Amino acid sequence: MREFISTYPYFVGSAAYSAVVVVLALTTLRAAQARLTLWSGVLGVPTFIYLGYFERVYWHPRRIGGLSLGFEDALLSFMLAATTWYLAALVFGGRLQVEVRYQTALRRAAILSVVGGLLFLPVAESGVDPMTALLLTYLILTPLLWWQNRWAWRLVAIGIPALALTWLAALRFFFWVHPEAVLVWNPQGPWGTLIAGVPRGELVWAAGYGGLWPLVTAYVYDVRWRPGA
Questions:
Q1: What's the CA gap between 45 and 213, in Å, rounded?
Q2: Mean local confidence (pLDDT), 182-198
Q3: What is the pTM of this model?
Q4: What's the CA gap between 119 and 23, in Å, rounded?
Q5: What total of structural domains would you count in the chain?
Q6: Most buried residue, 83, 111, 116, 139, by most Cβ within 10 Å?
Q7: What are the distances in angstroms from CA 108 to CA 111, 159, 178, 221?
Q8: pLDDT for 89-114, tens place per residue?
Q9: Burial code of 13-41, b = ≥16 C-beta within 10 A, e = fewer?
């Protein structure tokens, strides 16, 4: 087991952090927000398909099976999406009204998948490094989704610093347990420089994702603000 952990830290870390956020959601949030945290994670899973663009350019973690995409990526995508909503729910859970309508959620998720792909893929295919392409996608989608839910600026204001600091702490702990793990990031790339002990791209990405993903979750699952709650 120890050899497996040291050989596949990406899988172990993704699985461990996923378990942590699930347990925290179930034990510290109201039932409706705990469910929505898990649904937010599920909504994030398909985004792992874009991680293939980052292989060798941005990072090159070792995956079970030696592929450029794997189950680890799906776990990571679930964990990050769930964590982002969990942080928002900790602050605003009592003010958020949740009435998930699954047909509406599927339709909106499909729309965002198409729009996100149309924004990201042409830029990434043009030769721009994938992290820059992803951040540009966030910069376009975030104001568009905020326009749909004007009240949700609160989620953006909390999500940006909350996820950036949480991800910084999580990576610092991960690198403390597995010091060699930092070597999977490309130090020669534009986002590989270490800041506070973690790759710069991870911090910038976490800030951008922390602002965008709560808006995605609120839009897809039709979350409303409950005034005066």
A1: 12
A2: 92
A3: 0.95
A4: 34
A5: 1
A6: 83
A7: 5, 21, 39, 8
A8: 999 988 999 888 889 999 999 999 99
A9: bbbebbeebbebbeeebeeebbbbbbbbb
